[in-house]
């Protein structure tokens, strides 16, 4: 099992830009995902966070509510981390042959597509962290899946 760059990162509010108002009514936005590189005989995945595209509304990061909101935003990054680990685990099992590059790219695209749908479902089910009961349930699930030997978006 290869290491995935960015897998262990823990986000802090200092990683985010501050905005005076929200462009869409949300209190914060985490822009994260997975990038990958594939060649004819190797492949690697990286979990990425884009601080220049991630933001929090000024005043929403303070106190218990801010801590809870940060937990929700960290959840987005954890979902990306699970996708990155799943992708790298797949790359590590691929046989290097004439189909390697095609198989790696095809599966990587499927994982990125699944990542996008899980991120959307996370926000819908938690109502962007406002549904505290569902948020706590997601937090528990993310913690469990991240400690799995082979984490997968299919476990979410």
Question: In words, what does this structure look like?
Answer:
It is a single chain. By secondary structure, this protein is α+β, with helices and mostly antiparallel strands. It contains three helices and five strands. It has helices spanning 63-93, 100-126, 132-147; strands at 17-19, 28-29, 32-38, 43-49, 55-57. Strand 3 and strand 4 form a beta hairpin. Helix 1 packs antiparallel against helix 2 (100-126). The chain is elongated, with a radius of gyration of 17 Å.
Descriptive labels:
single chain; 156 residues; alpha+beta
Question: Summed up, what is this model?
Answer:
By secondary structure, the chain is of the alpha+beta class. It has helices at residues 63-93, 100-126, 132-147; strands at residues 17-19, 28-29, 32-38, 43-49, 55-57.
User: Major sheet: order of its strands?
Assistant: 1-5-2
Given the structure, what is the number of helices? 3
The CA-CA distance between the termini, in Å, is 21 Å
**Largest β-sheet summary:** 3 strands, mixed
Secondary structure category:
alpha+beta
Mean pLDDT: 95
Helix content: 40-55%
Contiguous uncertain segments of 5+ residues: none
Instruction: Give, in order, the helices and strands.
Output: EEEEEHHH
Query: Radius of gyration over alpha carbons?
Result: 17 Å
Number of strands: 5
């Amino acid at each position: 099992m290869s290491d995935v760059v960015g897998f262990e990162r823990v986000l802090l509010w200092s990683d985010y830009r501050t905005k005076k108002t929200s462009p869409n009514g949300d209190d914060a936005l985490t822009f994260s995902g997975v990038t990958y590189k594939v060649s004819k005989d190797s492949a690697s995945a990286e979990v990425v966070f884009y601080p220049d595209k991630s933001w929090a509304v000024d005043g929403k990061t303070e106190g218990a509510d801010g801590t809870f909101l940060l937990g929700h935003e960290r959840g987005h990054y954890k979902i990306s981390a699970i996708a990155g680990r799943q992708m790298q685990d797949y790359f590590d099992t691929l046989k290097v042959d004439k189909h390697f590059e095609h198989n790696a790219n095809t599966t990587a695209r499927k994982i990125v597509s699944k990542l996008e749908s899980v991120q959307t479902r996370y926000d819908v089910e938690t109502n962007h962290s406002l549904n505290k009961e569902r948020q706590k349930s997601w937090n528990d699930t993310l913690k469990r899946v991240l400690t799995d030997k082979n984490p997968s978006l299919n476990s979410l």
